[in-house]
Amino acid sequence: MTSNRYATPLKSPLAIPTPWAPEFSKVSSLLDAHITYTTYSLASEATTRNDGQYGQSAYAAFWASQNWTYTDSPPFTTTVSPTPVPRSELVFPPPLPVEPVDKNETNGFTLPSNFVWGVASSAWQIEGGLQFDGRGPSVEDGIGTNPGANDSNVDAMFYYTYKQDIERLAEIGIPYLCFSIPWTRIVPFGVKGSPINTRALDHYDDLVNEAIAHGITPIITILHYDLPVSVPYSDPNFSDHYLYYAKQIMTRYGDRVPYWVSINEPNLQPVDNSLTNILVAHADLYDWYKNELGGTGQITMKFANNLAIPLDANNPEDIAASLRYQDFSLGIMNNPLFLGAQIPDSVLKTPGIQIDPISKVNLSHIHGKIDFFSFDPYSSQYVSAPPGGVEACASNSSNPLWPTCVVTTNDAANGWLIGDASSVGYSFIASQYRRAQFNYVWNTFKPSGILVAEFGFPTEGDQYKALDAQRYDLERTVYYQDFLTEMLRAIHEDGVNVIGTLAWAFIETNEFGTFDSHYGLQTVNHTTFERTYKRSAFDYVDFFHQHAEKSASGYA
To answer: Which top-rank group of organisms is this from (predicted)?
Structure first.
């Protein structure tokens, strides 16, 4: 006999017992009184009228100067009205045919009621409409503009379908949504003193309200790769430009948003003094939010890191290479943030490295300006010393392994792949190293808590499968079930304070020029823009029903 089980929707609206910051009307005076508020409409031919440095003509010329051509235009440019999710879409899939090895050991493990669990996304990868509603150009907007690639001008169209997408998250019972706001939608020209786009301010205000009305807690990433073309990280005034933008959204939405991510994965930038610029900007933002705005929410910065595992655990050189890799990946920015310590010697003593020690003044300013550790531990990898040794490589800046000077591989010393492979080279089902990932961060940087801000698995060959086969995404479910089971063990057996997890992503994304790597708990039909829940969405929710029944009830 088969009986249907249905997803449990969230209770709505979300109750906010105490605002996380004063309402905008009470703090608007914190913003520069001379700011110009406007909106732009792109007319590509209007590039020669003399209407000022930031006029409509200058806006058109700014876009034209990038020399990007978008193959397709958005099929709709107004907000789609939501419709009820049919009950037939909310039926749970059949029971899992496989379970994590350690499942029986964690059956009695529970999570606290304030555990943060939900889904994540990034604006450039799902919004579409890059040149609409007054948005300015970002450094990502040239990706995929070559023939045969996806340019994100037309992707999941979340900018216009957000009401329907939030409805779908609420109906399946996902309580937290992390989304990013594009800097250049708020400040089209990117720089301090330039006009603010009122249409974007209204849009994201409604997005926040829509989430809360459906029982979903919003988490906002202030910068997720889509840096303005006019403001590189190397700009000595980077912090000023960044705060000019960030203050606009924090003053307006801060009363309803409990968690903020300042910058996404800055440690993937080249190792130079730009990393210090980013740390200073983050610390400046933290001080302004806490001390001037009076915000009581929490601020973090999130980092990329697939833990380095020594290829040969008995080889001191491989162990040293793994530690060196972690120094470059996490130590540069997290030593100052969490420990008040200098950039690791392994980095600073690399001949020719273009990064200076952080001054005592900046070190004091940066230290402690973060409320919890946040990272994207998709998988792990093996690391070994390079041929000829680390020192020989480090002294030769033309070596292709420089400056980290370690060899990374997904193959163990015995020849076996680290785990079941995805369609990208950095995500594997490799649960044997999950606890080591959490323990490394917990014991090295000693944070108050750890948030998994992204984790996911794009199954190989999904783009060639029929829809019903894509829906039954067993590998993705196994990835999440294994990851979360080992996370429970890290919490209960190792004493690591993991405060939450956000699955990447809530719908399929443009993975920087391609739709073929199908991350996402829902499919996206790029002709009709219809969404379909995958079994991994149901199983992800079900894990927390089993271990964190009360975690969806409100703010942490």
So the answer is: Eukaryota
